[in-house]
Protein: Prefoldin subunit 1
Organism: Labrus bergylta
Amino acid sequence: MAAPIDLELKKAFTELQVKMIDTQQKVKLADLQIDQLTRLQKHAKLTHTEITTLPDNTRLYEGVGRMFILQSKEEINNQLTDKQKTADEKIKELEQKKVYLERSVKEAEDNIREMLLSRRAQ
């Protein structure tokens, strides 16, 4: 009778281990994406503050691939604020995803703890 219990526990532990490894990789990926987006956001903010100090008649160019396109100051400011907003939204989504992943791992751990406690009680 001890063998089936051990097999069930072993199966549950292996599933938990696989889930933990997968979740840790997803969390690391989310952290990397958050770092990249915060750098992008910071770069856009710094560029925006520098552009606002320039006179209105300054010629501004936007880099597109290997060339530069003449843009108005207003268009560049709008693009930079859009970059900041989209980066902020993506960061919030990634943080929510991280919380969900961490919660799912915690629930799996709790389920295995309950299984162990119920086996010991028998």
Summary: The first helix runs from residue 2 to 52. Residues 65 and 71 are 15 Å apart (CA to CA).
